[in-house]
Amino acid sequence: MLTKLKIRSMKNQDVSQVLSIEKDAFPNLFPSTNFRTEIYRKISNCLIAEIPKDFLLNTSTFPYRNGYTGQETGDSFIIGYSVTWEIADETHIISIGVRRRYLRRGIGEKIISKIISNSIKKSSQSITLEVRPSNNAAIKLYEKFDFKVVGKRHRYYSDNLEDALIMTLNIQNKN
What we know:
This protein has one domain: 3-Layer(aba) Sandwich (Aminopeptidase). It contains 4 helices and 7 strands; from the N terminus they run E-H-H-E-E-E-H-E-H-E-E. The protein has helices at about 15-25, 35-40, 105-120, 135-145, and strands at about 5-10, 45-50, 75-85, 90-100, 125-130, 150-155, 165-170. The chain has a 7-stranded mixed β-sheet. The protein is globular and about 40 Å long.
């Protein structure tokens, strides 16, 4: 399956699938991200991970919330996305989401690798993100890429007032 995975820039026609991933991955997020605005924002870089529709995993045993995937007939199937902002000499990861059915299959790794590659091309000095301390899987993934905890944002998440760990990857010597 991963051999057929393609990472590319997000387009307007991808937004319904990306919104369904966001709702599935972050059910308490309110309001939803305005991906149509992000696509055209000069500082944004929006990526999607897609597979051909004939490589879908069986979803009948793992339904999506409300049964809606956002996929239209003939579309490839989007299984992950990211939104980053380029601010000064830093890339800030705003959001990364992967469909639950496709978690722990290397999709997040491929997306992060592409973010790092794009950041190096843009001469960013670092990549920063926030993550819940309770999200052990995400923390381990970021640590795999050498992100380090550099701080904490107190009561950052509005759904339960959980703190956020600030993680940074220094890429200035990788240019």
